[in-house]
Amino acid sequence: MGPNEFIFLMGIMAAGYAWALAACLAGRGRLAWPGGMIGVASGIMFVAWLMIDQQRPPLLGPLESIMETCLLLGVLALASSLRGPADSRAPAWAWSACLVLLGVLFFLPRSLQPDSFMFNYPGLIIFFQLRLVAMALLLYAAACHASAWRSVPNQDRAADLRLGRLLLMAGLAAYLVSEFSGTWWSYHWTGGFWRWNRGFLESAALFLVIALPLHLPHRWAEKPWLVSCLGILPGVVVTAVTIIHQVR
Amino acid sequence: MGLWASLRLSLWALAGLAAWLGLGAALAASSGFGQVFMAMDRTALWRWALDGAANSPLVAMWVAGLFALAGVLVGNLAWCTWRRLLPGGGLGNPRRLLGLVIHLCALGVILLQGASFVAEGGQTRLRLLPGQSAGLPGGLEARLEAVNFVSDPAMLGMTMRQSRHLMTREGFDRQANKVRVAFFKDGRELARHTLMFFHPAHIEGQGLFLVRFFSQADTGQVGAVFNVASRPLWPPFALFYVLLIITVAVQFLREWRAGGGNGAKGRARA
Hints:
The complex is a heterodimer of chains A (248) and B (270). By secondary structure, chain A is mostly helical. Chain A has helices at 3-25, 32-53, 62-81, 89-106, 122-149, 154-190, 198-211, 218-221, 224-247. Chain A starts with a helix and ends with a helix. With 270 residues, chain B is α+β, with helices and mostly antiparallel strands. Chain B folds into 2 domains: 7-121, no CATH class; 124-229, Tick-borne Encephalitis virus Glycoprotein, domain 1, CATH 2.60.98. In chain B, 47% of the residues lie in helices and 20% in strands. Chain B has helices at residues 7-29, 34-42, 45-51, 57-85, 94-119, 234-260, 263-269; strands at residues 124-128, 133-136, 140-148, 178-185, 188-195, 201-203, 206-215, 222-229. In chain B, helix 1 (7-29) packs antiparallel against helix 4 (57-85) and helix 4 (57-85) runs antiparallel to helix 5. The interface between A and B is large, with 59 and 68 residues.
């Protein structure tokens, strides 16, 4: 598979998610399912091809990171949208996020990461894979918090916020596994479990950003816009920092 | 109780420290200060503070700010744990107990990471050819007995970055490229270890890590480069980290089972 095939798969994924988003915006949540499936299927095709051809899962680089994140985000959105029309707001935000990511990918290098002898080291695979899983979980948490911002009635908002908090915790757990694996990798390679460099400092900062919305003072927790803003923050920041780190 | 032991201070400390670390990442990535961070990386932080900090006051101020902010976060975390999580409800309440354990694990991870900057030394580089020996801390001696390098020798004359296209999974077998090292103390052989990438040797508190191979310019003989490091805080750090992950995962499962993951049930509870 070459650059043209990658663009084709990206296009199919974007078309599927755009269909799903349009169906949600039109208030026809049930019709989102085929579009979401098409998007997810194209993501699965990309991952399956990578695993067969390169004998490894997606790891790093904008193409691999964004395609896998969009696949996982699409799966989460699809799972939510199957619950019924009342649950179509968060999936709509998730599909919007996928379209933004795929749009960004269009302007970034779309090549696979060159092979490395480290790509069969479990510490490295877990580090990169779990970072992508964390990105998807945190982005879906952001979608739930965005959905909660203007949700009515209050019951819907509370359900969105509860799911958002759960996904923040799941994202935090995935991120911690990823970071621990990276620490293990660093220690067993160089003999140090901390490095004074950009990557380690960014990673520590991201951990704290994920922890932020889980430490809301009670008075702040009563302000929906503030809860939503802080809930959206980790998904956006972790994704942006990870992609920028891989590009620069 | 005021600001201390409050979620408000926790939130501001987390946000402040995250922003400060972000600033540090930007400094470390910049061409002007990148070298300073690399110098910090090569040695123990306390040694850098004594020897090199005066030459780069901005980075020294950043390090001081980092410790100050981390101190506020850790202080508040410890105080919160003492004043809010331990009393009221007692340890018999599983929800409070889990919250307590999560925060204690986080405290352990942060404190041990901080302590490693002060208590542990940096890494020492060793460059040995087969048959050569070098002294290690604690009166140890390491002798490179044999090098088994089976990959393309062209990569030996290159930097890690230059040799990336050769160091593929097919081009560089981690298991086949290895060295054998014998350790001595007071003239007595203590042990022999086979080292590979990501497979270090540990003896009497010292770790020997194979980081690359090289080729002697005149003879073409292949040698090995090692990092020597003593990391006594790594095992407790790793233990607290794993416990933190487990407890966060348990907390997630508890909340999931309580109805947070199910839209209909969640709404019903709301």
